[in-house]
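Bench log, entry 3. Co-assembly request; chain sequences pasted below exactly as received.
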Amino acid sequence: MDLSRLPAVPPLPSGFSGLLRARFGEACQTSEAIRTQHGASESHFPTVLPGAVVFAASTQDVVDCVNLCREHGVAIVPFGAGTSLEGHTLPLSGGVSLDLSRMDAVVAVNHADFDCVIQPGIRREALNAHLRDTGLFFPIDPGANATIGGMAATRASGTNAVRYGTMREAVLGLEVVTAQGKVIRTGKRAKKSANGYDLTRLYVGSEGTLGIITEITLRLHPMPEAIMAACCAFETLEGAVDTVVQAFHCGVPMARIELLDTALVRAVNRWSKLEMPEAPTLMFEFHGSPAGVTEQVETIRALAAANGGGEFVWAEKTEDRTRLWRARHEAYYASIAVRAGAIGWTTDVCVPMSRLAECITQTRAELDRSAIPTTIVGHVGDGNFHVLFAIDPDSPAELAEVEALNASIVERALAADGTCSGEHGIGLGKQEWLIAELGEDAVDVMRTLKRALDPDGLFNPGKIFSM
Amino acid sequence: MDLSRLPAVPPLPSGFSGLLRARFGEACQTSEAIRTQHGASESHFPTVLPGAVVFAASTQDVVDCVNLCREHGVAIVPFGAGTSLEGHTLPLSGGVSLDLSRMDAVVAVNHADFDCVIQPGIRREALNAHLRDTGLFFPIDPGANATIGGMAATRASGTNAVRYGTMREAVLGLEVVTAQGKVIRTGKRAKKSANGYDLTRLYVGSEGTLGIITEITLRLHPMPEAIMAACCAFETLEGAVDTVVQAFHCGVPMARIELLDTALVRAVNRWSKLEMPEAPTLMFEFHGSPAGVTEQVETIRALAAANGGGEFVWAEKTEDRTRLWRARHEAYYASIAVRAGAIGWTTDVCVPMSRLAECITQTRAELDRSAIPTTIVGHVGDGNFHVLFAIDPDSPAELAEVEALNASIVERALAADGTCSGEHGIGLGKQEWLIAELGEDAVDVMRTLKRALDPDGLFNPGKIFSM
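Structure output for the full assembly:
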């Protein structure tokens, strides 16, 4: 998508903001500051202002907002924490940014069933804080402190997915407000079901284009008896990646296995004031019984040693683990901070494990021929890695270079039978690659579903595909 | 659904079977024997004959058959092994039964990525025989030797799902022929993806109503280093179920944990010529490293002993394990065989673990008040259990009694936040319960999807819901 050609945003219909005010009072805001906050992006997309922001406090608020918007032909874009990296929350057709962050209640925690029912606006760190005394936790961790609703809408995953799966596996059922203003439930609390079309999985990853998620039944996991985290620097990038691939083949049930290339370790050292050896590094976390964790650790140490890995630096205490993973979580910000005034642009390919080593090393070699600062970070246990570009937003030449590099990275991943988006979603940024990956006919099926469920095209228009 | 009121099946349009013959030659069959084989059911549904049976040998055959049928307004029902228990393959509107069993090739096995690409007509036992020397296996095991295509279409699961998930997790991507005769691919081979609407999960479980699956990319698993199987008889049904629930809470990663009630053990002893103690019984299988399996076994023995479990009978050798699981797999046939001339009817509820004990014991108490022979078998590690009724097909009174008992079982499961179908699908038999479970508005969303993707309503009409 050519970002300089984003369509002009139409104003709200005359009198519409008065109708919103009449229904929502102070929960409807039209100040430039609040509209800007809801129209900005954490990534390289330009800011696009909504006509108004409505802060929903209940499912009924969402229904009423949807009905008002439908009656007046106004677009509606759900908003959570705004941490998307693919421009998902930008109101391309103007209209209402529907902020769900005030719907942040934990409705129920079912300890005996390892599940909970929550509202979409709760953030993952707040959910885990709420769960702290239950012996349960919510494992999915994309780094950013996103809302669970946003994570469901983009099918997020992150560092723990290699063991615990993605939002696809984590969501047991949803309450959704349809474009017709109906409130539906897509599933109950059974661990599995064959009850007709898998509506839960249809809405998970639909990026706000098919319905608005107002309640989520989530699968939780018992806190493991033993947790060990470690990092290990390698002589070469190949050695680090080969260790991951071999660990996969040995079936080691690691909870996390993350790759940081040398450039990223350097950036993270500077940003987080650490002194990690500046070399390709793997960060691990092992969950299980004490005996199980010991077994995993021994396997991994042997694999690492055989692939040029150095000493393991252990983080056994909770605070040490937290420091280790904070460094990983801040990778995005650390990578941008290497260059004054830069903004971020990230790729998101995911490839079969057998192709991971060649994809990462070829990518690194290609990036080394560019002057743009880049780092590589990866959820490599899933075959998923990101290149973070720190770009000068005012340089069209640089933007063009990044687009060409991104194209090359995605093409390499698709040729390796991989995907253009492992976890960030399509949003605005990956639309042409979605077509390259699945073909026009498959994307046409998606368009058909969109037209069927949202015939007026008012739910987050312009995302995933053009109609 | 009132089975005595199945709609009359229209004949094929005049001249249509000639068109099929011209295109498919001997691969189009219209003999009564072959039509009967494709119109029968393994369950209590009446036989409904298709107008013709087409044996597809390629995706192009499927495309051509779909195009011919669409051009002439003829319904088309995919057929695999015919082992469905909910009447999925009955051609309610007549038309063509499209038999995919000749499309049974293994297209590729990607050892290094733990996946394979197969045609839909291969059966799960043949797939595992093909994989035998690779160190990999396909774990999903519904008992019947179903085709993988049929298992995908009904979102099947079975005995290993507690550890390895269901067909929802097993399918990485599909090739599908749409009602418009287009061939689409829904995903590639990456372990995860956030590439737009989850078309893979939409077709998995769509029961042939949205598209025809012509190729499947499947996730495989490495054969565990150590496997141990065992069975254990309990003093009470409660004791057996409590053991399962406690094992779930302890996070024991069992591969299989199956419940057989006393009536079923008796039936299985008779059918499979075994001498198991006639008491509520759990069958277990443990997969993992030798140390891991030992740890699992110790935990389970302690739990069983505390709940009135007797000695564990071990099956360590492959042939002993095979005999043990054959007994479990033949439970359906064993349960019907207790009564001469009987046919089977099975329920399929799945409930949250915290409600499992009360649901099973209340169900057993209710069944004990009926004279109809019944057994209970369950994938209880998932909260899923089946009641098998051996019914006299010629007794309307008995049919009415079973319907009332089934209603009571499903209502109890729904009140416990469970589902009417854990794994068999909706088909013909669970349509009213799907509405009771999710509500008319959610089922209306399914109908909207159906109308959008199959506007002429020719793909397996009358299944999942009425339009």
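The first helix of chain B runs from residue 16 to 24. Chain B has a mean pLDDT of 95.
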